[in-house]
Amino acid sequence: MGFLTSPALDDTGLVVLDRLDLSIDPAEWRGLEYVGWRSSGITRFAPLASYAGEIECNGFWNHTPPRTDKDGVWVAAQVAKAPTLQRLALEPGANLGRCRVIELQPNTYADAVYNLHQDDNNRLNADGTGWVVRSWLNLTDDADSLLILRSDRFDPATEIRLPLRAGSRIIVDTQRFWHAVWHRGPAPRYALITSWTSGPQLDAYIAEGNGDQHPTSVDLPAHLVAEAQTELHRRIEERRRALEAQGIVMEPVESLYE
Ligand SMILES: [Fe+2]
Q1: Ligand 1 centroid – CA 175 distance (Å)
Q2: Residue 79 included in any domain
Q3: What beta strand segments (E) does 25-158 contain?
Q4: 23, 33, 54, 238: which one has the fewest Cβ atoms less than 10 Å from its Cβ?
């Protein structure tokens, strides 16, 4: 039968919506409770919706009973502090799974390339239902920072780089794309990340936001890209050796991140 997907993402796997003119009090994200959670780089997360409304970030499939990344339960104490963020997450009217604010510390382009990963949003998703995709809304104004996307983890020729101004809205099939953020800083970057289910509601939201499937990618100097590739392979080899010393054989593709 197959999954219900968004035509707007079928072609390229990503879509950039018109930038929102954000007028949100930063207290909405700064006042939240954050927990450490492994993602791309040095990160903390403030869950707004989780498996059961608790302040935790684990995949819904790691709970009992397990379920796919749908029907997230609002964390009352968090959304009380972030009503605008909750409203923005609800705006498409699509089913919503995990919803949280990510805090990312500054890093380098090479860090981002090493941190590239695919998500696992559709584990246990039922055939014939909507495919789960990821939405990013950048909260801080990080004009020099880039969302890095690659269809092939090791091939920079497949790379798309999207700037992260305040109000930037990007929806990505994060199982299709390897992704990570290069955040130049100096302050931490904050973004609202929501798992939305594909379907007519999401399609209408993308159309209303003038979704662009072919956004302009930012160019980077060739030497920077080449150096990051070398560093990527050096770090992978370093990790392989460290694990080998512990008697662990590294998987060709390591376990998926959040
Ligand atoms: Fe991810």
Answers
A1: 9
A2: yes
A3: 35-36, 43-50, 73-74, 96-104, 132-138, 142-150
A4: 23
Q: Specify the 3-state DSSP secondary structure of 36.
A: strand
What are the residues facing 74 on neighbouring strands? 49
Q: Please name the helix (run of DSSP H) or strand (run of DSSP E) that holds residue 157, with its range, or none.
A: none
Q: Determine the distance separating the centroid of ligand 1 and the alpha carbon of 39, expressed in angstroms.
A: 7
70: phi > 0 → left, psi -120 to 50 → alpha, else beta; which? beta
Nearest Cα to 74, choosing from 86, 66, 64, 61?
Answer: 86
Asked if residue 110 is part of any domain, the answer here is yes
pLDDT at 148: 97
Task: Say which CATH number the domain at 51 has.
Answer: 2.60.120.330
How many angstroms is it from 120 CA to the middle of ligand 1?
Answer: 8
Q: What is the reported pLDDT for 253? A: 57
Distance 210 CA to ligand 1 centre (A): 24
Q: How far apart are CA 173 and CA 176, in angstroms?
A: 5
pTM here is 0.94
Is 227 a member of any domain?
A: yes
Question: What's the whole-number mean pLDDT along residues 28-41?
Answer: 87
Domain residues for 139? 7-245
Domain tally for the chain?
Answer: 1
Mean pLDDT in the chain? Answer: 93
